[in-house]
Amino acid sequence: MARSKIALIGSGMIGGTLAHLIGLKELGDVVLFDIAEGIPQGKGLDIAQSSPVEGFDANFAGTNEYAAIKDADVCIVTAGVPRKPGMSRDDLLGINLKVMEQVGAGIKKYAPKAFVICITNPLDAMVWALQKFSGLPKTHVVGMAGVLDSSRFRYFLAEEFKVSVEDVTAFVLGGHGDTMVPLTRYSTVAGIPLPDLVKMGWTSKEKLDKIVQRTRDGGAEIVGLLKSGSAYYAPAASAVAMAESYLRDKKRVLPCAAHLSGQYGVKDLYVGVPTVIGDGGVERIIEISLNKAEQKMFDKSVAAVTGLCEACMNIAPNLKK
Ligand SMILES: NC(=O)C1=CN([C@@H]2O[C@H](COP(=O)(O)OP(=O)(O)OC[C@H]3O[C@@H](n4cnc5c(N)ncnc54)[C@H](O)[C@@H]3O)[C@@H](O)[C@H]2O)C=CC1
Ligand SMILES: O=C([O-])CC(=O)C(=O)O
Question: What are the Lactate/malate dehydrogenase C-terminal domain coordinates in residue numbering (predicted)?
Answer without folding.
Answer: 148-304
